[in-house]
Amino acid sequence: MNPRTASHSQSIWRDLDEDTFRTHLVSLEERTNAVPLDPQVFPLPADTDNTSRNFSTDDEQKLADAFAFLVAVEQGAQSVAAVCLEENLEEQSLVVRFAAIDTINEILQESLENIRRTLAAYATSDGAGEFRGDELFELIIRLHQRRILGRLRSSKWEKPTYLSRTHKKPLWEDFKNLLHRVQFLYTKKEKSQRRAVEAGIEYLAKLYENFEAVTTQSDDEVVYIKNLVKASYGLCTSDSIKEYARRLETVGPTPQLRSAVKALRQIEKIAAYYRITQTLLGASQRYPCYFRHLEFKYLPPYAGIPTNIGYEGWAKTCHVHAEVQLVVYYDLKKREFPGGEGTSAPRVIGTSKYLCYLCYLFLKFHRCYPPANTHGRLYDQWTIPDLAEMGDEQRDKYREILRSMDQELVKKAANEPQWRPEPMTSRENLLDAVEDKDSIAL
What we know:
alpha+beta, 2 domains, 4-stranded mixed beta sheet, two-stranded antiparallel sheet, OTT_1508_deam-like
């Protein structure tokens, strides 16, 4: 879709020159290594009026995150997805609305439709719950098989072109450093705890290493990946490894310690494919009517916009991020979501990665959707649709959002330069998770 259809007099950039805004972005990037903010997770607002809702805010966020994770099957920014949930109390139905920078193609939509049908069947009590659960897990593994190979840095993985010159050792080789760190974090009196940590790491390391010998693109490979993902989940949710991770985080930062923490966070990402399965299954049991009447809908993405202003020389195209696409869509369709017994507007936005710095600021100043997190990285190839169909109220609101964002950028750039390392753009936080029986997900 064309993201620039408004006339000059209508434009959301009427009061703030877009080139000036972009120049401020680059200035802030130069002073912060393009990371103006530390990674953060924010608490969700408390539930207030649930008369037109079945979902708690927490369940809505976790389920939206799970669906967004489901559709992000490739590496890179183009695959980052966002999701909103539209629940209809009267019809007891649920629409899952997906957005991404690139089109969610028909092949991916067909795979998602298989998952939707499996969830609908699981929500219907037919005595085959365990079978349906395993079927769902296998569908998710097959859909994300290439992505998992990339996370493993497996020799079987065919790198995308933009990564062809990068050379990282397989993930299982990082386990040596993980094991080596253990001896420095436990006293002699803690021998049993130390041994439990070592045994867990050694077992998973061997599992990862042996995977390289499994025949590529075979049914055996899928079975092995399922076992590997489950074992990773078991490791990340074990009390002994959680305590080890906590100790690693509290010791002074050295390259070896940072590498060990990063390896654990990468294992978390592999474990997440099992957590996503459990989240979807749990939600389908708690809200069976919604999953029996579940519908997937997809926003068409906006076209890229050329720019000559950027921190990186190669970055010549601005994109409308998936989160922004959803906000604009619901602002344009506000009258179609009356609430009450009809379809309620979403309260949160689920994402496959943490929010970038600009999406975080946009949601913060928009004030309708609480930002759940941010990785703090600033991507200056970011923009907002400027559309003729926007009403005056919406245009004024977006002008105010841009003005507030720009003021924040200028204020931060006026501070002393602060260099931050490039963050991990997604984290699964299994190692920090506390079990909550009221939640659909760990």
